[in-house]
Specification:
This protein has three helices and no strands. It has helices spanning 2-44, 49-80, 83-93.
Length: 94
């Protein structure tokens, strides 16, 4: 019986080594795929999350300023009575 135990021990050791090698190959493949994906994203020049946040804040501020200026222009036109004249002039320019 000792030869069969030795055979099973060798077979078990071989399977353990094969499983370890397979895990090593898997880790190496993951590393290569991750590096390629990062390189692709860098090459595409995609905006980062921080850049998008800054842009969102900028657009929000500009929208608020635009609304305030629109209200101010409307108030000035109403005060001076040029709302109708301004609209007529605008239609003539088109």
């Amino acid at each position: 019986m000792p030869p069969s135990n030795r055979l099973f021990d060798d077979l078990a050791r071989l399977m353990t080594d094969a499983a370890g090698a397979a895990q090593g190959v898997r880790r190496e493949a993951e590393t290569v795929v991750k590096a390629q994906a990062e390189r692709l994203v860098r090459d595409l020049d995609i905006a980062s999350r921080e850049e998008l946040d800054v842009l969102r804040d900028l657009v929000t501020n500009l929208r608020a300023q635009n609304d305030a200026l629109t209200a101010r222009v409307a108030a000035l036109e109403a005060k001076s009575g040029t709302a109708a004249a301004g609209a007529a002039g605008l239609s003539e320019a088109i």
